[in-house]
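Re-running the complex after MR caught last week's input typo. The corrected sequence lines follow. Everything else is unchanged.
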Amino acid sequence: MIEFRLNGNSGVSPYQQIVQQVKSALRLGRLRIGDQLPTVKDVVGNIAINPNTVLKAYRELEHEGLVAARPGIGTFVVNSFDDTTYAAQRTLRRSLEVWLEKARRAGLDDESIEALFVDTFLFTPKEVAR
Amino acid sequence: MIFALQATDLGKRYGRKWALSNCTLDIPTGHVVGLVGPNGAGKTTLLHLAVGLLTPSTGAINVLGEGPATSAEQLGRIGFVAQNTPVYESLSIETHLKMGAALNPKWDSQLAHRRLHDLGLDPSQRAGALSGGQRAQLALTLAIAKRPSLLLLDEPVAALDPLARREFLATLMEVVAENDVSVILSSHVVADLDRVCDYLVVLAAARVQANGEIEDLLNSHHRLVGSRREVDSLPPSAHIVEVSHTERQTTVVVASEDPILDPTWSVEPLTLEDLVLAYMAQAEEQRRELVRTKVGES
Amino acid sequence: MTWFAWRQFRVQAFLVLGFLIAFAVFFAITGPHYASLFNDLTTCKAKGDCNSITNSLVNGQDTYFPFAQAFSLVLPGLLGMFWGAPLVSRELESGTYRLAWTQGVTRRRWVLTKLAVVGGASMLAAGLMSFMLTWWASPIDTLNANRFSSLIFDTSYIAPIGYAAFAFALGMTAGVLWRRTVPAMATTLGVYIAVRVPFFHFVRPHLMTPVTRVRSLKNVGNIGFERTQNGVSFVAGDTNLRNALSFSSSIVGKHGGEVTQRWLGDHCRALLLLGNPSPGKGVKVTTGIRPKAFTDCIDKIAVTFHQVLRYQPANRFWTFQWIEMSIFIVLALLLSAFSYWWVRRRIA
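Corrected-run output:
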């Protein structure tokens, strides 16, 4: 069962963080189709946030077609991201590790690495020629 | 529509000093409301007025549609945890629960004992031997086992260590998740309220400075930064909360429904803490100004 | 609420109960012995050895009696201090009123229940002690025939019930006004004493018009003469009216006037010449050693003067008990009503 963590300083609203963490877990295979998301009560018992925040996040995920609420039972994953990405993910992770090693050997510290990555990520066009 | 708390020009005076004045609020049910303000701002006064421990000097207050402490049933619908969580030190935890059962029309004994069990509290222990966090949990148990429709908490976590604080708030959120209960809790630390509240009331200098759903408040308030100038260039619908000048720069916190289109201002988002601080700072500045003029006159 | 009022009060109740039980045991053990001694007094006159019985009765009970009496005397005041004063003030002082008044009971019911439970217990405790003591001390009280005297009256039968109610209500009022326990306790004790002492000195004798009785001096024992700086004066000792509350006693002329120096000089020359005891020393009359000058003078005095006694007779004892208890209960009710009102309206 996934456990949520909130980063108070990230500038991202709590409900967005929950949405992102669910999506991230889906992508990484930690959440699969049929898995149950933790109940609102369990989430707020863990991280003290307003239950409405959790409900809002779950509703957005439902709106995006990723989860579905079954009344009286819970909220379940009904869809995931394209499975084909799993294989690509493993290769990409490897290249990323290589790149990181190069960056460290070039003398970049953590913050410079992060800044470089974020900058490139933000300013690279999103559409990819297929 | 029944409001959790409805105040109309409510005021409370001690001698010549007003602890609360011109308080008008319509707080809807179904929210976790944060009542925030500096010490002495009137938070405790407002909560005590809501539970009938104080009577108004002016104005009126209704809680769940009725006047406070008007009947046993009405008292039974509200759970209250006072500041510093008073308990009967010489009585055991179990006796406190028995008291709750004897004095409240709707008492869920199972719930109370289950909570004690979950918290690892020994019912035979004297309440005076508990730690601050445990006492707060006991007080909360007493309040929620009443099965109230409204929970009022006066600075419940102020004296607690970080772990106890988080556990208390987490427990409170569990209660909200499972039951149809509205909550009003006060604090002078915004960070406590940030994640658990979805509605905010800012009290400072004995008055309500701002109130509303947190999302609306955050959407309608902005921080504007620009070159040093007078601030009359802003649209009239913008309500200025706080202004500060440095040599080169002017920073303004405004509440505005309309977008700020003037390109000479750089618009920044505000955190809840910034927003509250801006209101509190303005109230404090007004108070100081008042004192200065009074001293100047004498 | 009744249960909880009792629960909060439990420890204090048991403390006093402990004392009451201790006294009860003591009374139960020693009481029958004294009662049977007393019964023997009715038969001993024939045999003529009443003195020893009387002595053992008096010595026995007189040893313990003051102790028990003292407790019974202070009990109402103590109850007021320890049961009444903290009743509301402790909750106000410690802040637990914020818990108590936000449960599902109205403030009205909270006050009334506490009042009834602890006030009722006060009256009960004082009444129990008083009846136990009166029963146990009955032999010696009958012997001494001083039921109406202050200390005995104050610790008999139903009067202490009134005192306890009053002290309790006083304590509760002090607690409600001070909002702090220690000053409330001190105030309670102070005011209680300040009311009770003047009451039995100045008020009790006047509760009903005293009976007036005139007696010939021939029938009065314990009279004599005392040498003073001015000469000799005539004194009549305390009359011993059995079980009555003495109001005043005086020697007055049948047509007014008093036994003055001059009168004695005119009518009792012989007496004045009798011996020359030093000033201040009495020339008392004792049985068997009455000089003729004495008796002559007394006969002459008895012709012109008589003794006027004003007192509350023994048969008014119970009436006075009821009156006094009622007065203090009325005071208690007034104080209770006031503190009830204060808690409901003014602590807000």
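None of the earlier attempt is carried over here. Chain B has a mean pLDDT of 89. The CA atoms of residues 290 and 296 of chain B lie 10 Å apart.
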